[in-house]
Amino acid sequence: MGFSIVILAAGQGTRMASNKPKTLQVLAGKPMLTNILEQAITVRPDQVIIVHSPEDIDEIKKETKQFQGLLFVEQNKPLGTGHALKKALPIIKRCNNVLVLLGDVPLIKNDTLQQLIKNLSDCDIRVLSSNTTQPTGYGRIKKDAGNCVKAIIEEQEANKEEKQINEINSGIIAFSGKHLGSLLDDLDATNSKGEYYLTDTIENAYSKGLRIKTTITNQNEVFGVNDKKDLAHAEGLKREELTNALMDQGVTICDPKRVDIRGTLKCGKDVIIDVNTVFEGDVELSDGVKIAPLVIVSNSTIGKNTSILSHSNIEGANIGEDCSIGPFARLRPGTELKNQAKVGNFVETKKTTIGSKSKVNHLTYVGDAEIGEETNIGAGTITCNYDGANKHKTIIGDNVFIGSGVELVAPISIESGATVGAGSTLSKAAPANKLTIERAKQKTIDGWQRPTKNKGK
User: How open is the CA angle 173-177-178, to the nearest 5 degrees?
Assistant: First the structure.
């Protein structure tokens, strides 16, 4: 039988104290809803339906545009989870089983979703639960003598005895399609909040003789995020999950608690990642890469045996093999380093290709440039690529030597084998295999007196 996934994402999350809806709060570099959708689509449902509040639709659609075929349903009034699911009922495919996910339970895994869907074959309802020694805040799973679920008791409705139950409800439930409509019709709002609780369907189903079972998972996977402290805790859980997976693959992480992975990080063999490092977007570190402390890498590929020294920031770059970057280097989008290239301390690059074995060692800005092989760019060099209106390109050939303190006013070409003398400002091409120098004539003024400060000031 086919199945549909419904994600309840209409919660406002007032405890977040944020202008963003709760489900769009960022976890590991992505909205919580994105984390959930990435897992949900891998189980190949017939439909994915997102139930949202009226004011959040534009923002939710914007943040989920990479996912194809999503359906959106508005919950016009915040009348509870049962009411939210009932709003989605008219567009759920007839007779489909339904898997309900929550927009604030972002650590769910596709293997668990597959298990829930598969295990629904031997019952009418499957509740995802977890055992914990600290159940406060969660609904309790109440079972009969035969270990079937007879009710889910919300925290605020539980009596003293029920609060001692350690098996908790995650809010994630799989329903047989043939019973869902009638169970939702039977809901009422006679509770302390005046809401339609989806969990009340369980007691109603039990009274009708339906079979209700649990699938138990670890507590981390069903951790619910309600405020910024919860969000920080979830970030820690996600960090632990990602770093453990990398270490299982052989990556050396000096302190897993001091690495942030805000996207996808792929690593080869013998990669070393030091402390206080951040990886954003899609990052790939090839075999033997070393990442020093206080490095940020975003949407970049780093080639084999390359070293990124401390305090470097790399964004949208493609780095070759055996390169050295930093310390205190900034590589902006469009930077490409060929094999064995070097970018040193306090160097900034942007939309620049640096050829094999070329060096840009100190205190330099190189933008909109192509640098050939085995070229040396001296300290304090600037490619003057912007005229106040448009960007222009600098082309530097192979085996070029640029002295210190040089300004290259683009558009300009420095031909292969050229040498540019220190302190020059060039606005015309430098020919191959010649020394080009541009300086004002040096002079010394005899009898010159240094200005002195006026007394009393």
Answer: 130
Separation of alpha carbons 112 and 118, rounded Å: 10
Return the CATH fold of 239-436. Answer: UDP N-Acetylglucosamine Acyltransferase; domain 1 (2.160.10)
pLDDT score recorded for residue 191? 80
Calpha distance 259→256 (Å, rounded):
6
Please state at what angle helix 32-40 crosses helix 110-119, rounded to 10 degrees. 50
What is the model's pLDDT at position 28? 95
Q: Find the catalytic residue in 179, 233, 362, 392.
A: 362
CB 374 within 8 A of CB 392: no
pLDDT in tens, 196-210: 999 999 999 999 999
If phi > 0 it is left, if psi is from -120 to 50 it is alpha, else beta; for residue 108 that is: beta
Annotated catalytic, 311? no
- The string of DSSP letters for 26-76 reads EETTEEHHHHHHHHHGGG--SEEEEEE-GGGHHHHHHHTTTSTT-EEEE--
> Got the DSSP string for 112-143?
HHHHHHHHGGGSSEEEEEEE-S--TTS-EEEE
Q: 429: which DSSP letter?
A: P
Specify the DSSP class assigned to residue 187: -
Q: Is the bond leading into 411 cis (omega within 30 degrees of zero)?
A: yes
8 Å CB contact between 141 and 167: yes
Instruction: Report residues of the chain scoring pLDDT below 70.
Output: 456-457
The neighbour count for residue 347, using CB atoms within 10 Å, is 25
Cα dihedral value 23, 26, 32, 34, nearest 10: 110
Q: What is the C-alpha separation between 225 and 32, in angstroms, rounded?
A: 9
Which stretches of 167-258 are DSSP H helices?
177-185, 200-207, 228-248
Q: Does the domain spanning 3-222 belong to CATH 3.90.550.10?
A: yes
Q: Does pTM surpass 0.85?
A: yes
Whole-number Å distance between alpha carbons of 137 and 171: 12
